Amino acid sequence: MTPIRNITILGGGTSGWMTAAVLSRAFTPDACTIRLIESEEIGIVGVGEATLPQVRDFNTWLGLDEAEFMRATNATFKLGIEFRGWGTSGSYHHPFGVHGQSAGGIPFHQLWLKARTFMDPGSIEDYAFPIRLARENRFDFPVEDPKSIRSAYAYAYHFDAVLYARYLRQWCEARGVQRIEGQVTGVDQNAETGFVERLTLASGESVGGELFIDCSGFRAVIAGQALNLGWEDWTPWLPCDRALAVPCERTDDLTPYTRATAREAGWTWRIPLQHRTGNGYVFSSRFTTEDRAREVLLGALDAPAQAEPRLLRFQAGRRTASWHKNVIALGLASGFLEPLESTSIYLSQIALTFLMRLMPDTRFDPALAREFNRLIDIEYERVRDFLILHYHANSASQGPLWDYVRSMPVPDSLKEKMALFRHRGHVQQYKDGLFSPASWIAVFMGQDVMPQAYDRQADGLSEEALTGYLKDLKRKIDSNLAVLPSHAEFVAAHCYNPNSGISHD
After folding, report:
1. Is 113 annotated as a binding residue?
2. Looking at residue 192, what DSSP letter applies?
3. Where would I find the beta strands (DSSP E) of 52-121?
4. Which of 232, 348, 367, 409 could bridge 15 with an S-S bond, Cβ 3.0-4.6 Å?
5. Sheet holding 258-263, edge to edge
6. What CATH number did the domain enclosing 262 receive?
7. Residue 335's CATH number
8. Quick one: pLDDT at residue 188?
9. How many other CB atoms are found less than 10 A from the CB of residue 399?
């Protein structure tokens, strides 16, 4: 067995530099040469300004200092996503945490469902500490005591993805990663094996390698253009194929959550950073024009725009194989799912986790590639179903797009999940793949997919005991919230970037 000693990464956006960071953390320069090719003439998409809590595991594994990283990327904290206009309630939150606290092993949402049969318990969100925290624009780190209501959540970040890539680049270069400036004009394969042997740059320089990782974004220079690896189109389920992105000035409302608002032909995002607010409109070109989308986006801003909206074109789907011979496609070169649930960076991160677990030697055992592709397929399909649920179960928005998604056939895997939940509020649990039952419950209930009955295990609590339990839980949440700082105060004390141009005085 001969270990790989020469790895070449193509593309220097978020996924490219995350890949370089993981590899340079795992291998010393003596053990393996890591090169990254990127061109300053090619802009990066810079997706992923909103993240999931898993990104903290990534940064922690690298050993990054949280406050330093947040200052460098103008980051703020994120407790979840607020969805506006997706359900009849007008607004609901998908929190990074759970609703309430279970009692005697009985899931809280089952207790709440039972309470509705004999009283008005209010919204289930009234019992979710991370949602109450978000709605009041407060923040603090979760505590470790599992008995405390303040342990019932996690957090992620909003950050400038371009600055994050730059921050990782500095980190990587200090650990021996070699950056090569240039554009690839040729991909040379072995005539017999089909393995990629070298990349040719516009300058004439040739860059070899034993393992090539394609992080070239939508262009997919190696996986798509050179190897012509197949693409599975998911547009029939996820018809949005355009996005307009524009930053605007920051307002005083430093919310600790992303906002996703349903619009006539898609949805807009709002992501508050320290120095600006990121905005965008994901829409379907089948149901609106780019001019109308631009009008909707600019009309939705809560402060003056700082630039002209930038258009991105995409197609929802994935590569039929992300690992082929000695090439691995990662990030947008591997697949694309719209950022409705902030999954872009996570999908790169989990692919890197699988790569490190299955790192090949120079024999490139095909069994490793098959297992990698199987795991990636599961991840993409789990996220796909969750995104489709948002569209298909939208009970509030009007217009041709929404008529289409509400009536379209959905994957059997999603159909089964919805049927199971409607029966008695049960959620499929799985070992692999993103999104826990708490996430599914938040979206189901937020978008009016309600169970017909509660699970009888909730009868373990009498009506009188349940009434008291709910009352005590609300009181506990209220008393804990009252002593916590605002999100803006917490950012100012923990990770304020004095160069952000924003004063917290």
Report:
1. no
2. T
3. 76-78, 80-84, 91-95
4. 348
5. 91-95, 80-84, 258-263, 266-272, 277-283, 242-248, 310-313
6. 3.30.9.100
7. 3.50.50.60
8. 97
9. 14
CA distance 438 to 342: 16
Residue at 454: amino acid letter:
Y
225 and 338 part of one domain: yes
**pLDDT greater than 70 at residue 503:** no
Pairing relationship of beta strands 6-10 and 211-214 according to DSSP bridges: parallel
| Residue bearing tokens 């624009």 | 137
CA distance 264 to 300: 12
Annotated ligand binding at 78? The verdict is yes
Give residue-wise pLDDT tens across range 79-89.
Answer: 999 999 999 99
486 falls in which pLDDT band (50, 70, 90)?
A: very high
Q: What is the pLDDT of residue 373?
A: 97
pLDDT of residue 498: 82
Residues 213 and 329 in one domain: yes
- Residues 90-108 have a mean pLDDT of 93
CB atoms closer than 10 angstroms to residue 37:
25
Task: Give the distance from CA 405 to its chain's centroid.
Answer: 22
Specify the number of domains making up the chain.
2
Catalytic annotation, pick one of 78, 114, 325, 417:
78
Is 81 annotated to bind ligand?
no
Helix 14-26 and helix 344-357, axial crossing angle in degrees, nearest 10: 30
In 425-503, which residue ranges form alpha helices assigned H by DSSP? 437-446, 463-481, 487-494
pLDDT at 263 (0 to 100): 97
Residue 430 has a pLDDT of 75
DSSP state of 50: B
pLDDT at 316 over 80: yes
- Residue 273 placed within a domain: yes
Annotation marks residue 417 as catalytic: no
